[in-house]
Design a protein that fits this description.
- Part of a sulfur-relay system.
- InterPro entries: DsrC-like_C (IPR042072), DsrC-like_dom_sf (IPR025526), DsrC-like_N (IPR043163), DsrC/TusE (IPR007453).
- By secondary structure, the chain is mainly alpha-helical.
- It folds into 2 domains: 34 residues, no CATH class; 59 residues, Arc Repressor Mutant, subunit A (Orthogonal Bundle), CATH 1.10.10.370.
- Strands 1-2 form a two-stranded antiparallel ribbon.
- A hairpin with a 2-residue loop joins strand 1 and strand 2.
- The longest helix has 16 residues.
- The protein starts with a strand and ends in a 12-residue tail after the last helix.
- The relative contact order is 0.18.
Amino acid sequence: MPYEVNGTTVESDANGYLTDINAWNEEVGKAIAAAEGVEMTEKSWDVVNYLRDEYINNGGNQPNDRNIVKAMSEKWGEKLSSKDIYTLFPMQPSKQAAKIGGLPESRRKGGY
């Protein structure tokens, strides 16, 4: 299921995850979000950028939903619940936001 972005084809696997993390940019992220039915807001991008930073700069770390809630609570200066993050990414935030961020599919089970 490749994505078409500005006249360029970006390859993905059967589940819609990019086959090459380096092919990602914000425009690709927007195309994946549109395919996922996710409206990207500033907070949505914060989550995506957090996951990308953790994966790229922290040895392939893929935070679960609980860690996302904790990190975004700190970043946004408010106490969040998992419901707040699921509002942004209804199909499991740790996986859906990672997909939009061009990261590999997580093989982890569950959000906690």
